[in-house]
Amino acid sequence: MILLSTGGNNGGGYRISKYVVMALHGVFLLIHAILNSLPISMLSFLGQVGAAANFFGCFLMIVIPAVATERASAKFVFTNFNTENQNGIHNNFYIFVLGLLMSQYTLTGYDASAYMSEETKDADKNGPQGIVSAIGIAVIAGWAYVLGITFAVRDIPNLLSENNDSGGHAVAQIFYEAFMSRYGSSVGAVICLGIIGLAVFFAGMSSLTSNSRIAYAFSRDGAMPFSSQLQKVNKQEVPINAVWMSAFVAFCMALTSLGSLVAFQAMTSIATIGLYIAYAIPIFLRLTLGRKTFSRGRFNLGRYGTIIGWISVLWVALISVLFSLPVSYPITDQTLNYTPVAVGGALILAVSTWNFSGRHWFKGPIKNIDDSSKEYA
Questions:
Q1: Residues with Cβ < 8 Å from 13, sequence gap 6 or more?
Q2: I want to staple 264 with a disulfide (CB 3.0 to 4.6 A). Which of 4, 190, 257, 317 is the partner?
Q3: What is the model's pTM?
Q4: CA 88, CA 330: separation in Å to the nearest integer?
Q5: Which pLDDT belongs to residue 2?
């Protein structure tokens, strides 16, 4: 990891060890846990600040080509493939489908509205609207973000080299080259990276919020270890134990990267592809087993719900295959994509736990409100 001060290799950039990175990770998790322990009103305000930081972060990538004195052509942006791929891949179509994964990362986290539904007014309407709105914003902002990056790219080999001015960090190098070419100084790059860092910080805070609410919900239904403790809330109605447990588990998972980066990547692959599989399973069951018994809520997609549902299931099936493809050749024990092994193992564990235990005692989510008087169109 590089902390860009006055220009990386040219200006004395400081390369920190993996242990310092881990310590910083622990500090940020501690801060995130403290912030998530605040009353809901304060957390909501911080979420708005985070949204503003994310907006400015995306805006910076949109305008960065205007700062650069040299810009890529539209032909390069929309038609060029990196033929000097350093991972041993030379097939353009293969590179293209792997590139889809990077754009897929921008379409995550939009389900946070569902996790926060118990703390949302008129949640059966505002919750789904929040999800749809988040997807629309992510599509537009993500597209603009990618365009801003690619139009600012000048020298791909140098951008990816660990010996460049930012130590191999592509986004940092793009900012560095743009501001150095225009102003002869990297100060602007540091400021821009600081704004993006702030956006990432608030994204981490929101991730911990979502995770703690998931843990709380499962614990309230008795589906988590130590459920009796994790379902407790404080006077501000914050699931405080679930918040700190989530932060602790996140730190423990990151510790594996100190010993084996392959093991850490295997765990993160479960979180990535498992997320989309978790989205697709209830949609698939709704379209098949539940098509006659499913009761629509106030917010629904109407007659378009079925076709959109099948498109979603098929898309998740496609990206699940893409996530499992090797991303580097030749394939060795260090370059093998362990995603199928990790996700398959987690799936087998989940199914086995359900068959041998869960199905005998789990009765479904526990309701804590009376909705018998509600009527939906």
A1: 2, 3, 4, 5, 6, 7, 165, 166, 167
A2: 257
A3: 0.75
A4: 7
A5: 38
CA–CA distance, 138 with 130 (Å, rounded to integer): 12
Size of the chain in residues:
377
Q: Which residues pair with 14 in a beta bridge?
A: 3
Both tokens of 227, joined, read 């459920």
Buried b (16+ CB within 10 A) or exposed e, 198-229: bbebbebbbbbbbbbbbbbbbbbeeebeebee
Cα–Cα distance for residue pair 226/249, rounded to 1 Å = 14
Q: Which residue is it, tokens 């076709």?
A: 307
Tokens of 204: 């981490």
Rounded Cα gap, residues 359 and 310, in angstroms:
27
- Enumerate the domain spans of the chain: 2-71+106-256, 260-361
Tell me the torsion sign for CA atoms 116, 122, 123, 128: negative
Which portions of the chain are predicted below pLDDT 50?
1-11, 372-377
Rounded Cα distance between 254 and 22, Å, is 8
Backbone phi, psi, residue 326, to 5° = -65, 140
The answer to whether 167 touches 7, Cβ cutoff 8 Å, is: no
Based on the number of CB atoms within 10 Å of its own CB, is 297 exposed (0-12), middle (13-18) or buried (19 or more)?
middle
Peptide bond between residue 326 and the one before it cis (omega within 30 degrees of 0): no
Longest dimension (CA), the chain: 69
- Report the interhelical angle of 187-220 vs 40-67 (nearest 10°): 150
d(CA 9, CA 173): 11
